[in-house]
Design a protein that fits this description.
CATH architecture of the largest domain in chain A: 3-Layer(aba) Sandwich
Organism (chains A, B): Blastomonas aquatica
Protein name (chains A, B): UDP-glucose 4-epimerase
Strand content of chain A: 15-25%
Order of helices and strands of chain A: EHEEHEHHEHEEHEEHEEHEHHH
Helix content of chain A: 25-40%
Keywords (chains A, B): Carbohydrate metabolism, NADP
InterPro entries (chains A, B): Epimerase_deHydtase, NAD(P)-bd_dom_sf
Oligomer: homodimer
């Protein structure tokens, strides 16, 4: 990158929950181009160029292809539940448009850093007794398969020297906004909203269910750290450090911090949801740890970070 | 499948070198629908329905989706060299159209058998000292990455019980017709044509280069065998048995069988071609062997089968 200008980064899905915070964090040091279908409210940030559009539109890809970005953070996706509901759309965005975007990024010959928001959905369910850096992908959801497929594309293009790619496998991120998200895991965030409002909520998992969580605060920190890594790891697939949380403990902590009653929570396990999101075993991430990536550190910090976003 | 009608099979790429022979072989026992852009000369076969079209055309996919096939053999592809020359076309056919085809096949709920023509290109280069059933995919070509991505889709859709899929990793197939094939490995077949014609030929590999080969005769036998397997293997990725051939030996055998002079062959190794097609180590395929799949058996048989196709 030229020394006389800030480096250029493209963020897709920039109007989303993670994208919004990431763009604001990056705007300090980067020249940011932010793209999404809607939600690009960055008028107050002078270093941010908002480029609304649909990744499925070849004109938007051609537009993005015109700029030699130093880095790309590809967050845009059709998530799990939405992908099952509209498989054709999900294939177009999660696979075809993602490949086109990566090809466009690679075309300038400047070997840009490409961070791809992959997902623990590549592991499918049931999970083995322990998940670590060598656990093989075995998706069950269309969404998980799409993520595994783009991980392969990122790995191949990185091996060819066309990009410096890294597929970051995201766990559950809390607390996302209320409302339809297309995510099967929306209940993870809805818990925070309900207890803050003092409203009753029914969870589709049991009290002793366990799952891997990360706050948006910790995730954007990890992404910023990954963007600044001096060298791209040879293995481009990376499980992110996340806190393993038991739901009973999570409910108690959220209740305590919101001054609400844990008895507002009813457990009504749905076997499919429990299998997909409530049976997450111990997670070991030595590779990401060695690269300096960190989770929230404690349940108290995770909940505090999550509540700060509501 | 109903007992009162022959089972229905769809063959894509049916106008190609392998497809032509496969359709003729299957027509004895199957109700065959054959699709390709061109080359569908099956008017003499009463049980074959020719459906010309482009897999990139949603109308063709919709057409194919109307029939509940008992099995699909998906041969159509944009091969290695052609995929590097036109990445966008290759993504559309090798990835997007392949996913749409598999989804269409799965939509009837009859869990069809799906045989996908994958490729040893998933292994990339350089290859390890030995390749066996657990050697990981590590593609270098776009084509190889596309194949690995669809292998993932086949594996996921099979795991979900939507299809009974099997990804057959094809080695070099000889002897394909002369003319532009879009294949980086075209020289493998051109050798047979040149010596049969008594014409000189320059090979882009050295005399001690080694590669995995299969005749069309042996490959169509393997595909028919795979279609008849009573159960789909849990691991849907399958390396096909192939004969490992040293080029000097191959040249001698072809020269002997064609009554031509081996001295017509000049070795002019191209480092990239030699790396991709001339450094293939011993290949061990216990899983495919156990399923009853067989290669040509000997160099003499391989060359005889290949010459019979010229």
């Amino acid at each position: 990158m030229a020394a006389d200008r800030p480096p250029r980064v493209l963020v897709t899905g920039a109007g989303g929950f993670v994208g919004q915070a990431l763009v604001r964090a990056l705007a300090k040091d980067w020249n940011v181009t932010a793209t999404d279908q809607t939600g690009l409210g960055f008028a107050d940030l002078p270093g941010v160029t908002a480029l609304p559009g649909d990744l499925d539109d070849p004109e938007l890809i051609a537009n993005l292809a015109a700029t030699p970005f130093d880095a790309i953070v590809h967050l845009a996706t059709v998530p799990g539940g939405a992908a099952e509901a509209d498989p054709a759309l999900a294939t177009r965005i999660n696979v075809a448009a993602s490949m086109a975007l990566i090809d466009a990024a690679a075309a300038h010959g400047n070997c840009p850093r490409v961070l791809f928001a992959s997902s623990i959905a590549v592991f499918g369910d049931p999970l083995p007794a322990k998940v670590d850096d060598v656990t093989p992908a075995r998706p069950m959801l269309r969404y998980g398969a799409h993520k595994a497929m783009i991980e392969e594309w990122i790995a191949t293009m990185s091996r060819r020297g066309a990009i410096r790619g890294l597929s970051l496998r995201l766990p559950g991120i809390v607390a996302r906004p209320l409302g339809p998200s297309g995510m099967k895991s929306a209940f993870l965030s809805n818990l925070f909203h309900a207890l803050k409002a003092g409203a009753p909520i029914s969870l589709p998992v049991s009290a002793d269910a366990s799952c891997w969580l990360l706050s948006r605060h910790a995730l954007t920190g990890q992404i910023q750290h990954a963007l600044a890594l001096p060298a791209a790891p040879a293995d481009t697939r990376l499980n992110l450090p996340a806190l393993r949380v038991v739901f009973g403990d999570l409910v108690a902590e959220v209740a305590q911090k919101t001054g609400s009653a844990g008895s507002l929570v009813r457990y009504a396990p749905d076997p499919a949801i429990e299998a997909a999101f409530g049976r997450q075993p111990p997670l070991s991430t030595p590779r990401a740890n060695a690269l300096g990536l960190r989770h929230d550190g404690s349940l108290a910090a995770l909940v505090a970070h999550a509540l700060a976003d509501l």
